[in-house]
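User: I'm curious what two different proteins look like when written out as structure tokens. Can you demonstrate?

Assistant: Sure. I'll show them one after the other, since each token string lines up with its own sequence. Here's the first protein:
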Amino acid sequence: PTRSGSSFGVKKVNSADELDYAIESARQYDSKILIEQAVSGCEVGCAVLGNSAALAVGEVDQIRLQYGIFRIHQEVEPEKGSENAVITVPADLSAEERGRIKETAKKI
């Protein structure tokens, strides 16, 4: 689904045989769907509070998955919740990388 959050309706497809099921599952959440190539790596986040005059920027966090897709909320068929995630705060990145993430978050 293109207009959803928290990985609702997201499926990782490992073969062409799984594609039809993934599309139908996504359509349960949104009539508009997006199919894209998986990218391996980790997720980083940085909270920003305030307005352009005064922004408070939180610490950079990092989410690494042991398997599957990160899910904050549960669907009908949960992947054992979000216990597949290892969350690290501050992120296991260099100070320079964390600084770039914070500066980018402020611009967004």
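Here's a second, unrelated protein for contrast:
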Amino acid sequence: MPQMSREGSQVETYDHIAAHFDYFPHLCDDCSFSCYNPQEAAEHEVIHNHYVLQNKAKNNYVDNLCMGIYKDCLLASKYGEDQG
């Protein structure tokens, strides 16, 4: 499980969880780049002068699954992993 700390960002944790599902809904129209978070997509556009299709491969089921796992990680961080 990703370490949940106050220093870690929500976006980094979402990225980590999404990577486990090979889920990258933002796809570059000019190369093979793909990512989970829109900030990374915007950076790719500016740095490489490419166009990233936001949510081109969006999957609501996987989005909700990632959010559920993120919430479980927060609860485990707050109360401990052995609580059920």
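A detail about the second structure: The chain is about 50% helix and 10% strand.
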